[in-house]
Amino acid sequence: MTSDLPEPDLYIGKHYKSFLSNNFDPKEYANSTINSTSESDGDITISLAKLSFGIDNLNKQLHDQVIAHFEDLISQASGIRDLEIVLKSVKEGVNSLTSSLERLKTKIHAPYTQIKNYTLQLERYQTASDLLRNIVRFFHLARLLEGQLSEINNEDEKAIEYVKAAPILGELEILLKEVDFEGIELVQAQIPEIQKSKDKITVETFQLLQKGIDCQNEADIILCIQIFKELHEIGESILKYVDDIYEKLLEQIKDVVDVNLLQKEVKDSGVIPMKGIRRLGTEPSTGASSVWTSTLWKRMEILMNEICESYPMTGLSYLEDDSILDTEFLQHYWKLLSQNFGRELKEATKGNTFMQQTLINGYPKLIRLFRDFFTKLEEHGHLKLDGEFQSQETLIMLHSILSFETGYLERSIIRLFDPINVAFPAGIHRTPPSKSDVTNIVRAISTELAAVRIDPHLLRSVAKNVVKALNLFGAKAENMAIVDSSAYQVTGPGPCTASQNTNFELINSLYALHQSAWKVLEEYPDNITEIVFDAVENTRKVMQNIVDPLFHHIRKEFESTILKIHREDFSRQLSINFMLTEAQCSTYMIELSNRMNYVQKELFSKISCGLNSKEWTKELGKRILYFWLLHASLVRPLTENGKKKLTRDMGQLEFSLNQLLIENGSSIEELGDEYNALRAFKQLLFLDKSHIAEDQYISNLPLLILIHHIIVSSSTSTQNINTVNTLQLPYKIYGWTEADYSKWLDEHNESEGIDLVKGCLRTNSELKSSNEEELFEEKLVRKLLKERAGIEV
User: Fold this and answer.
1) What is the rounded distance in angstroms from the CA atom of residue 521 to the CA atom of residue 467?
2) Conserved oligomeric Golgi complex subunit 5 helical domain: from which residue to which, for each copy (predicted)?
3) Burial of 634 (0-12, 13-18, 19+ CB in 10 A)
């Protein structure tokens, strides 16, 4: 209904909107109306008439609204009456529920109060019962304690009786801490007597413990520790026990590194040292240094044995499962021992050159003493060491001598660098390392590694020094290597140049160092080899960087000589002059043989690199054979006499190359495929073309060389090389030289070379347009390409 009401503005003018304001005040409105009327000389009756009219108008509107919505108002009134009936019913239900709750509360309250009281009584009965039981237990333990202490008849039985009394005292102490006996006079009267007995046992047990420590009586120490454990004072007692051990060991440590006592012991030993330069203070003379050093290490060994025998766990072995011993007190012992051991050693080396040098240079001996000490403790089950002989305790102790390790490693790197600096002296006239220099370097490496082999951690550190030394050698060798033109002069005449001699000696030194270093490393575990691996192989890399340019120039020189094969005449027919000189090989081959002899005599003979020299010359030999076969297959025109001449060249090549290989520990038979290809080519020269595809012997020949030969065989004289019925070689088609062609083949793979050769064959369309038949050689090449390369042309 309310949604159908019109807006007030439809019935109320703008002059009556103020009556709708929430802040409307009648008095204020009346005053403002009177004031405005008086100011404008108006009549107040007019304002009253307006108000009366407004009231009548509102009444009329209200009457209209009631009439218009009469049925809705009646319906709302009826609904309100029904709601009152429902609310009355709900109120009656709530009242009924309240009455039920009150009745239920009355029924529960009494039993609850009764149960609460009974529970309180039971709790108090239990508390009283527990207290009475504890009181009975207290008096029982007090009587036991009194009886136990009264049985002590002499001093010898005292410790044993204290061991029996200690558990009773310990239980009494727990009872007094956990149970409140306040106000129980009988118990309170007994407490002072119990405390007196405990103090007496504690004091006398401490005295017995001190006596046991002083006399190294393990039985007394064990009894005392057991008593303190039962008295729940194990911490304080063991702490005192550990501190007493530490104090005694500290005095022994100070005595061992006391130079005055060391000097006295050397003097009392009666050993007369060699005469030497006397030094001031407590420094030994030069002749007496070895005696002093030997005595110092003997004293250090005795000290480590004393530390092992005085180890706290020796007196506490039966308590090894006690967690308190595995943590707080043993850590306390190791911390005290390591801190003071390191401090005393550092103090002894201050201002004393002998002590400093002995402890730094003899650091591996110090490590060995520590390892022996740890081994003994492990054998007795007091330590658990890992695969690298380390544990928390060993790390704490080794940390105390870390400064000496640093000094040792610094001197170790100096000892490794010294022979290298000797091998590469400074100055204008530098000489490469000799064999003795390399021997000294390898000996230094072997000595440094062997000296620290006992300790894996120190061994790794020294191995890293070896890496630095090998890298230094490689860098110096690389800087000394000569790379100007004089180092790569391979044609002669005369002996090799001074630059080449320098490089050869560097190559030999690098090889000797590489081989010797690996021989030394064979005795060490894989993790050490992994550290040094790159540095050792770097020496080989430097060697190879010197060798490769030399062999590159040698190879290029040989190749340029072989290229002269194309200047030879292989097209001559049989003549008298030819018959007279038929035993001679070609001029280029004589030149190639002479160059091989020169290279071996003046160059290769000065390289002593074992299997490396063998492999280098084998690779060179393979290249020579391949390059010669490639260009021999391109020789055109080639008559039958030309083939015989090639055969003689082939024999001379085989002989000269074999001599070169034999001088370097190999032979031409070891060249494998290249040598087999040479033998196959020799047979191919005189093989009928019709049998080429079926002959199994020529399967050793590379397909390109075989195709070259077939193309060459399509013409036998100069006159018909360029005829239509003659196949052209690939380099001729593209206008290349023989050298350009071989260079292109070096830069591309075999399949690309075969694709190039395919261009030498005429297509079917070309054959049809020229009305010519396919040459036999073309058919043969197509057959070979299909059978050996799987290519259809």
Assistant:
1) 12
2) 181-374
3) buried
Report the C-alpha gap between 707 and 724 in whole angstroms: 19
* Helices then strands, each counted (H, E), the chain: 31, 0
Nearest to 338 by CA among 261, 250, 213: 250
Q: What is the pLDDT of residue 717?
A: 44
**DSSP letter string, 529-554:** HHHHHHHHHHHHHHHHHHHHHHHHHH
Q: What span, in angstroms and rounded, lies between the C-alpha atoms of 202 and 162?
A: 9
φ, ψ (nearest 5 deg) of residue 760:
-80, -15
**Residue 791: Cβ within 10 Å count:** 16
Torsion of CA 460, 464, 470, 476, to 10 degrees: -170
pTM of the complete model: 0.68
Helix axes of 402-423 and 330-349: crossing angle, nearest 10 degrees:
50
Q: Which residues have C-beta within 8 Å of that of residue 455, sequence separation ≥ 6?
A: 364, 367, 371, 389
Tokens coding 72: 């809705």
- One-letter amino acid at 43 equals D
With beta carbons less than 8 A apart as the criterion, state whether 654 and 704 touch.
no
Q: Which among 50, 64, 67 is positioned nearest to 12, based on CA atoms?
A: 50
Contacting residues for 600 by C-beta, under 8 A, at least 6 apart = 659, 660, 663, 664
In whole angstroms, what is the distance from residue 162 CA to residue 148 CA?
8
**Residue 184 identity:** I
The 10 Å CB-count burial string (b at 16+, else e) for 770-785 is eeeeebebbebbbebb
| pLDDT, tens only, 656-708 | 999 999 999 999 999 999 999 999 999 888 888 777 766 676 788 899 999 99
Q: State both tokens at 695.
A: 């002959």
Q: Could you say which residues of the chain have pLDDT below 50?
A: 1-3, 5-6, 10-11, 274-281, 314-315, 317-326, 389, 576-582, 717-719
Taking the alpha carbons of 132, 137, 138, 143 in that order, is the dihedral positive or negative?
Answer: positive
The answer to whether 16 and 57 are in contact (CB under 8 A) is no
> What does the alpha-carbon distance between residue 408 and residue 389 come to, in Å, rounded to a whole number?
21
User: In whole angstroms, what is the distance from residue 162 CA to residue 198 CA?
Assistant: 10
**Residue (of 621, 779, 630, 778) closest to 703 by Cα position:** 630
Chain segment 740-776, per-residue pLDDT in tens: 999 999 999 988 998 888 878 876 666 666 656 667 8
What one-letter code names the amino acid at 622?
K
Name every residue whose Cβ is closer than 8 Å to that of residue 146 and which is 6 or more positions away in sequence.
Answer: none
Q: What is the DSSP letter of 10?
A: G
Burial class of residue 6 (count of CB atoms within 10 Å of its CB; 0-12, 13-18, 19+): exposed
Give Rg (Cα) of the chain: 57
Record the tokens describing residue 617, joined without a space: 């010359």
Q: Cα-Cα-Cα-Cα dihedral of 544, 549, 552, 557, to 10°?
A: -140
The stretches of 151-184 forming alpha helices (DSSP H) are 155-178
Please give the mean pLDDT across all residues of the chain.
81
Give the Å distances, CA to CA, from 514 to 417, 470, 479, 638.
Answer: 17, 9, 18, 51
CA angle, residues 520, 372, 463, in degrees to nearest 5: 25
Distance CA 147, CA 535 (A): 80
482 secondary structure, DSSP code: -
How far is 224 from 160, CA to CA, in rounded Å?
A: 10
Do you find a cis peptide bond into 493, omega within 30 degrees of 0? yes
Q: Where are the alpha helices (DSSP H) in 310-391?
A: 312-315, 323-324, 330-349, 353-361, 363-379
Q: Cβ(709)–Cβ(702) under 8 Å? A: no
Q: Per-residue b/e over 19-54, b at no fewer than 16 CB within 10 Å?
A: eeeeeeeeeeeeeebeeeeeeeeeeeeeeeeeeeeb
What is the number of alpha carbons within 13 Å of residue 480 lying toward its C-beta? 30
Nearest alpha carbon to residue 507 among 472, 469, 549, 535: 549
